[in-house]
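Hi Y.,

Following your request, here is the sequence exactly as I used it, all 347 residues.
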Amino acid sequence: MSVTALRRTLFGAALALSVIGAQAQDNVLNLYSARHYQTDEALYANFTKATGIRINRVDADDAGILARLKGEGTASPADVILLVDAARLWRAEVDGLFQNIKSPILESRIPAGLRGKDDGQGSAWFGFSSRARVVVYNKANVKKEDVDTYDELADPKNKGKVCTRSGSHPYNLSLFGSVLEHLGPAKTEAWLQGIVSNMARAPKGGDTDQIKAVASGECQIALTNTYYLARLMRSDKPEDRTVVEKIDVVFPNQQSYGTHINIAGGAVARYARNRAAAVRFLEYLASDEAQRYFADGNNEWPVVRSVKVANPALETFGTFKSETIPASVVGMNQVKVQQMLDRVGYK
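Below is the corresponding structure, written out as tokens. Let me know if you'd prefer a different format.
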């Protein structure tokens, strides 16, 4: 074989390997996810079955994922990011960790208030499911009319009755950021101080722990995301049924600005190497199939308004008035809220 022929052979082999490598990359999606729900496994499996694109997943909480993205910089292998809080999505957008995408599918199916700001280049993130931040109370010891607004969590009539998870947890920070938008700084800080004064114990645990504390009498009133409550309502465990029997739920502020809504959402990572597959995955999350799965699998409401679901727990909650503040505004308020929490001693 001549030198020229050998070079041609080697070049052809290298080109073939390059094509194979590119195809392999096209068939793998690197996902950083803060969604720690076992039921999501079927969601990912269905995407792979439909598209042939395999998912490599890294699990962490919202803060851990954002820290990892910052640390990895341009070397990050992440293609798609899933977070479970609107304010964290906004924060990541501000920090330049996402890239804007234009997708007619996402823009037509996801309401404008549940996605990042479109500056003409598309949006940086999109909400795919929603949950309400509601009040649960011990129905043997508390009247519904004493807890039917967020304001009443700070009312002296509820002194010694309130329990919550950490005030700095994203779910509470987002609620407090919403209240700040409604009440203004002075009234919001006074409200937070009132909650601290009304606590039955120091903040600890997660939302399910708060629900169980209300049922056991450790406290009488608590905040929770609706999907935690729905899980207990749908459980076959006798101990969970006992908890549900002892509590009731109220969607606050139905006569004013409505109940606070938070979202879980996704974005394409800034340095995504498989951008096309990443966009395809986000569009899949907006499909009727995936939207119904958020409801059936994790008791969240779909954000695509045309999608109908049959979840007995969500049906029990019925219809309610929800607030209309854009998710990005709630995110912008969180720095101020954290400063307030520090001043009033809300751990």
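The first helix runs from residue 3 to 26.

Thanks again,
Q.
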